[in-house]
Amino acid sequence: MEDIRISDSEWAVMKVLWQGGSEGMSLKEIDEAIISQGWSYTTVRTMVGRLTEKGAIRADKSHKGSFKYYPAVSEERCRRAEVKNLMEKLFDGSAKLMVSSLVRDKGLTEEEERTLLEIIEKME
User: Fold this and answer.
1) 75-91 and 8-19 are packed helices; what angle lies between their axes, rounded to 10 degrees?
2) What is the pTM (predicted TM-score) of this model?
3) Please, are residues 14 and 51 in contact by the beta-carbon 8 Å criterion?
4) Cβ atoms within 10 A of the Cβ of 98, count?
5) CA–CA gap between residue 2 and residue 22 (Å, rounded)
6) Cβ(69)–Cβ(16) under 8 Å?
7) How many angstroms separate the Cα of 82 from the Cα of each of 42, 59, 72, 109?
8) CA angle at 119 for the pair 91 and 110, rounded to the nearest 5°
C-alpha cells in the first residue's frame, strides 16, 4: 500500500475526521469543527477535495443533501508515513541518527527514558 502524504493543513482536517466517530461528517460539520483555524468554508471544501483525491478520505454520496466524509486511512498509518519521510529527509533514512537526535535534544524525563529502553529491549 502506498503512503499517502498529507500537508500540515490537511492534517487539521484529518484530525477532525479521526475524532468524528464512525458516523462520518458532512462538510458543514467539518467546517464547524475546524473553525479555530480561521479558514473559510471554501478552504475547508478545498482541503476535503484534495484529501478525497489522494484517497485519505472517502465520500459517501448516498446521504441526501449532504455527503458524509470518512477517513479512509488510519491516523497511525499517516503518522508512520510522516515519520518515514522525516527520517529519509533529515537523517538519510537512519533511525539511529533520528532517535539519538531526539533523545539528545529533547531532554527526556526518567519515565520517557525507561519507556524508550523497554521498546529497544523488545526489539532485540
Assistant:
1) 160
2) 0.78
3) yes
4) 17
5) 24
6) no
7) 26, 24, 17, 24
8) 90
